[in-house]
Specification:
This protein is an alpha+beta fold and 448 residues long. The chain folds into 3 domains: 1-107, Beta Barrel (OB fold (Dihydrolipoamide Acetyltransferase, E2P)); 133-162 and 286-447, Vaccinia Virus protein VP39 (Rossmann fold, 3-Layer(aba) Sandwich); 171-246, no CATH class. The chain has 8 helices and 21 strands. The protein has helices at 59-62, 128-145, 218-236, 287-299, 315-320, 334-346, 386-395, 407-414, and strands at 25-33, 38-43, 68-73, 80-88, 92-102, 168-169, 172-173, 196-199, 207-209, 244-245, 248-251, 254-256, 262-267, 270-275, 305-308, 326-331, 352-356, 373-377, 399-404, 422-430, 440-447. The strands form 5 sheets. A 7-stranded mixed sheet has the order 17-16-15-18-19-21-20, with helices on both faces. Strand 15 (305-308), helix 5 and strand 16 form a beta-alpha-beta unit. The relative contact order is 0.11.
Length: 448
């Protein structure tokens, strides 16, 4: 028996009372995890007493013939748990974990004392090798059910470092609201008790104070107390008119809090410069293997030319450049394009050029022959828009290597590739985010 109570919740004023009154406790088996890392089980609802055998049941029950779906965070498949209902949705209910009655053999003790309260990690209670197995299964399920494709998913390549790997964190804080029409800063009653951290699990606005983050690098954690103290001192002096988001970026052990500082990250033989605020992969420990795999995939296409459609400061374009005659990169961030150009020169790479612009316009004026060109796409979490995909298929490159930090939106986009005559040839997940539900997935497609 293992008693674990993670989250307390305030009374839900607008709670639907079907099928459970607020804070009803139930026992159930957890059968699987959602792609958000939440445990899912089913509960057999009793037939409402006012219904006879011939009467029509609630439509919600008809949609769940195998049992009412219950979502419970911080559970593992195969566990029997006691859960407390806090919200009823139309077709399922949400609950907090009260107690683990039957413990999974994959359950481990979480390292962080805030696990279960902080919304940053979902899997610290999950043995790491089991995390990798589960993430592979989730990619396979998304591929089949969202993209309608059946293909072998390679075993997930794990991070060499399972904790203290994250090289950038953005804690934030909130201040009391100013009186209407007032521009004066509002100083809390006790500024030194201001919460500086991340969103509490399951909430959109409630902050949890986080003095130490176990997935952030050791250098960031060493600097964090100083940063928190300085912020609270500034709050006490009226230095903030409202809350703010902080930045701590670790580059090779040097931590900066200035968004405009130029930092340097080493990836293999390359040294890449970029602004601390700009996007860059946040797990440097796995980057050599990650970028080498992408390079191998684009090089194996046999194409002579490479286009990096969301190039950032040049990570994929420059690591793959030696395998191509010419490389072109496009990026909406002008500062990233400037650094990509400078990074090419600093690393003596002469066959790569970069331009600022929207990825959907990348093919305008591109002189590379499509049949000799391979494309890397690494879009934001929301995936590719239809305009970009239309132009991609109009151009018709020889192959596409699609890198994504959200397999769900990636699989949504993959639906369109078979109709454009592209065949899936490889699916390789990478765990850039141990202890969380997130992962990167690299999908390779070749034109038939």
């Amino acid at each position: 028996m293992c008693s674990e109570s993670y989250v307390g919740r305030k009374n839900q004023h607008a709670l639907r009372d079907f099928p459970f009154p607020y804070h009803t406790e139930i026992e159930l088996e957890i059968s699987t995890l959602t792609n958000r890392g939440i445990g899912l089980g089913r509960f057999d609802l009793p037939k409402p007493p006012e219904l006879t055998d011939d009467a029509k049941p609630q439509p919600e029950i008809e949609k769940n013939p195998s049992g009412w779906v219950i979502m419970v965070p911080f559970c593992l498949p195969g566990e029997r748990v006691r859960a407390r209902i806090f919200r009823n949705q139309k077709n399922f209910s949400e609950a907090d974990l009260v107690e683990v009655l039957t413990r999974s053999p994959d359950r481990v003790d979480p390292r962080c004392p805030l696990f279960g309260q902080c919304g940053g990690c979902q899997y610290q209670h999950f043995d790491y090798e089991a995390q990798l197995v589960w993430k592979r299964q989730q990619v396979a399920e998304l591929l089949e059910h969202m993209a309608d494709l059946k293909h072998e998913v390679n075993p997930v390549i794990g991070s060499p470092q399972q904790f203290n790997y994250r090289s950038k964190i953005t804690p934030h804080f909130q201040l009391p609201r100013s009186p209407k029409h007032s521009t004066a800063p509002v100083i809390p009653d006790d500024p030194h008790e201001t919460k500086i951290g991340f969103l509490r699990q399951g909430t959109r606005f409630d902050l949890l104070d986080v003095p130490h983050c176990d997935i952030a690098t050791e250098a960031i954690n060493a600097r964090l107390p100083e940063v928190r103290s300085a912020v609270r001192t500034k709050i006490a002096a009226g230095g903030y008119k409202k809350g703010a988001t902080l930045l701590l970026r670790d580059a090779s052990g040097e931590v900066t809090t200035d968004h405009e500082t130029v930092v340097t990250e080493t990836v293999g033989d390359l040294k890449l410069h970029f602004l601390a605020r700009d996007f860059f992969q946040n797990n440097p420990f796995i980057l050599p293997a990650f970028t080498d795999y992408v390079r191998q995939q684009v090089a194996s296409s046999g194409a002579r030319f490479l286009v990096d459609a969301y190039c950032g400061s040049g990570l994929f374009a420059l690591t793959a450049a030696p395998s191509f005659e010419q490389v072109a990169g496009i990026e909406i961030s002008e500062s990233s394009v400037r650094f990509a150009t400078e990074n090419a020169a600093a690393n003596n790479i002469t066959n790569a050029t970069f331009q600022a612009g929207d990825a959907s316009a990348i093919f305008a004026g591109l002189e590379f022959p499509p049949e000799e060109t391979v494309i890397i796409i690494d879009p934001p979490r929301k995936g590719c828009d239809e305009k970009f995909l239309h132009q991609l298929f109009e151009f018709g490159p020889k192959a596409v290597v699609y890198v994504s930090c959200d397999p769900a939106t990636q699989m949504r986009d993959l639906v369109h590739f078979p109709t454009a005559n592209y065949q899936l040839t490889d699916v390789q997940p990478f765990d850039l985010f141990p202890q969380t539900r997130h992962l990167e997935c690299v999908v390779t497609l070749s034109k038939n």
